[in-house]
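Our consortium's second objective concerns turning raw sequence data into structural hypotheses that experimental partners can test. To show how far this objective has progressed, the report includes one record in full. It was chosen at random from the queue rather than selected for favorable results. The single chain below, 373 residues long, was entered without modification.
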Amino acid sequence: MSGTTSVVTTRLDHIRANLDAIRARVGDRLVLAAVKADGYGHGAVAVSRMIEATGAADWLGVATTTEGLELRDAGVGLPILKFSMERDPDGVADAVAAGITLTVTDEASIDAAAAAASRLGRRADVHLKVDTGMRRIGCPPQDAPRLAQRIDASGLVLGGLFSHLPISDSPAGDAFTREQIALFTSTASRVEDTRGAVPLKHLANSGGVLGHPDSWLDLVRPGIICYGAYPDPASPRTVPLLPGLEWRTELSFVKRVAAGETVGYGRTWTAPSDTWVGTIPIGYADGYSRLLSNRGRVLIAGVPRPVIGRVCMDQTMVDLGPTTAASVGDEVVIVGRSGDAEITTTELAELMGTIAYEVTCLITRRPGRASVG
């Protein structure tokens, strides 16, 4: 465990294989890998360095200017798109100075980017976001031609036009997604009729890559599938995926619990018979959700062992059974494979009533970090 009792290992080789599979799926389109939220909890710097060194993707996507600057400070030179507007003037200037492509959605965001570029003496690249149905950010489709002209007149470079698909990951949303694709492509045509070609038109997220080839356009923006999970249980499995991380710890304590005794806060678990209980040194402060209380499982020597009682801030208890050979220091798999058994982020998400994105993003800085591949 390299001096720590809990280690999250990012499988860079698996993430690269996933990106290779995405490229095989979308052909000659450019690929933007979303590395926001610290690479969905996998480590944005390590993932981005691997991507740049191997050519696994062409662009990177971040949510904040700070995330983009972290990559630049780490020596990453790939094009970076900030997915949302930057409203802080200092943040706009920092992004322009670092060559981070800004998203613009209205006159104010266009003017702010233009002002920063002028002060810095730079030609700044921006992408115009159009709202085709997500209702989060983006200009109304009818405003896109006028805003594109404003971008051109301001001295900015309109490098891209894009939108987002909120339900492309589920076949239940196929009709809505088809309407979005049609609306976006018609909007892009109106923009290009007004001012000429836009280099990059992009729409496809992970769900689009998996199930909607009409959304691929010039560039695709996979997120969660880069890291080895499908965005929805109903998503088509058109791209083979490998898990992007493993999480392992060890037993820190083993004790005998008699029938009728309770375990943990709130006394929510009662031993039905004499059993052995193991403690592991991770809890919700490490990112192992309290929602896994009395429902999660771990793997010890290839055998699933149920989580019992409430997950604590720093520790969690598991039932080792009426007899056990387990002892302090034995490896415990939280996410990953042990023998023929495996626990995935998708399994944890289903138990928690959430999505795999949240499972990995919840992992805090307390566990040790490593990367392989």
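The partners drew two points from this record. The radius of gyration is 24 Å. The longest strand covers residues 331-338. Both points have been shared with the crystallography group to help prioritize constructs.
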